């Protein structure tokens, strides 16, 4: 296929050149990363490509074959156990399907949509996390030119979505904590950070409302170990009153629990702590962490499978694919380790 051939949205390299008011050669040099153009020309070309949603084909490889035999994966970052598990699941399944994986991290990217469009020239399709760190403009940057799978995002009509169940299990774990007689239960995590945390807070709210209780506003913190430690210090200092915390992930929960115990607060006697994900550490800490088991590695594998099907034209079921989650009762919630649940 020639470099100027039309994409699925009808845009060609000629369209970009005309919009930018430059030659096709200049457009080609800019899109290939050449420095042999002025900054003014570069900006005009990039602006035109952005407006027209143009994704160039990777020239040499695409002249020979239509597939790169590679999947792109866009994640906010790689800190914490969640992203590593997701990546391992995705890479393992992609390898089974004969595909390599090109990883891109959103963290530190000034022009993430532009970076994603560039990545799209090197892969047959992309999977990306449905997170506030990866804005809507990034998801729509490809404009149908390459298959896209959204992980843990809101269902869309134009993009495949794979996710885990969040609301029901969050209601279950919150109801369990409330059943221990806790009076000031707080949700740790920012519902605006992504659909998964938003839906977990919705479950938190539903559990309170089913008992005729008024849910507290969420404590809007990031889901990192350092944020959990800082939050625990607020509890220890008396700045934040609570006798139970429902954490949006295990990384927060484990950090909160460790710091509270270091500060002389008993878990779960003084403050019950529960999490989400069921990372391996959750079963080995003392007290063992009550949490929700989310099959993160399976989620990554499912995303790779769905993307491969789209790339190769294999039929897929309409609508989002939702993986079930499971409440795991241990002792950080107030249950005795040896008690039946």
Automatic annotation (TrEMBL):
GO terms for molecular function: DNA-binding transcription factor activity; transcription cis-regulatory region binding. Residues 11-65 form the HTH lacI-type domain. SUPFAM superfamilies: lambda repressor-like DNA-binding domains (SSF47413), Periplasmic binding protein-like I (SSF53822). InterPro entries: HTH_LacI (IPR000843), LacI/GalR-like_sensor (IPR046335), Lambda_DNA-bd_dom_sf (IPR010982), Peripla_BP_I (IPR028082). It comes from the Bacteria. Keywords: DNA-binding, Transcription, Transcription regulation. This is Transcriptional regulator, LacI family. It comes from Pedococcus dokdonensis.
């Amino acid at each position: 296929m020639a470099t100027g051939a039309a994409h699925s949205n009808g845009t060609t390299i000629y369209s970009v050149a005309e919009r930018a008011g430059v030659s096709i050669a200049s457009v080609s040099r800019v899109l290939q990363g050449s420095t042999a153009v002025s900054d003014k020309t570069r900006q005009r070309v990039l602006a035109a490509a952005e407006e027209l949603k143009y994704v160039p084909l990777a020239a040499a490889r695409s002249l020979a074959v239509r597939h790169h035999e590679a999947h792109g994966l866009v994640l906010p970052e790689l800190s914490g156990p969640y992203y590593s598990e997701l990546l391992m699941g995705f890479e393992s399944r992609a390898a089974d399907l004969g595909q390599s994986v090109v990883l891109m991290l959103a963290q530190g990217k000034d022009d993430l949509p532009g970076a994603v469009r560039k990545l799209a020239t090197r892969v047959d399709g992309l999977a990306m996390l449905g997170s506030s760190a990866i804005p809507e403009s990034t998801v729509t940057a490809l404009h149908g030119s390459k298959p896209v799978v959204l992980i843990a995002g809101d269902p869309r009509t134009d993009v495949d979505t794979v996710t885990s169940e969040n609301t029901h299990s969050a209601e279950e774990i919150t109801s369990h904590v409330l059943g221990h007689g806790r009076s000031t239960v707080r949700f740790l995590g920012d519902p605006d950070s992504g659909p998964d945390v938003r839906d977990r807070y919705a479950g938190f709210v539903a559990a309170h409302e089913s008992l005729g209780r008024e849910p507290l506003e969420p404590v809007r913190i990031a889901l990192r170990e350092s944020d959990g430690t800082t939050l625990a210090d607020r509890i220890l200092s008396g700045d934040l009153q609570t006798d139970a915390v429902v954490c949006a992930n295990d990384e927060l929960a484990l950090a909160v629990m460790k710091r509270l115990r270091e500060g002389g607060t008993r878990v779960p006697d003084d403050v019950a702590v529960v999490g989400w994900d069921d990372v391996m550490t959750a079963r080995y800490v003392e007290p063992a962490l009550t949490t929700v088991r989310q099959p993160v590695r399976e989620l990554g594998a499912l995303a790779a499978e769905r993307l491969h099907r789209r790339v190769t034209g294999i039929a897929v079921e309409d609508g989002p694919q939702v993986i079930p989650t499971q409440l795991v009762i241990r002792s950080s919630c107030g249950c005795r380790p040896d008690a039946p649940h």
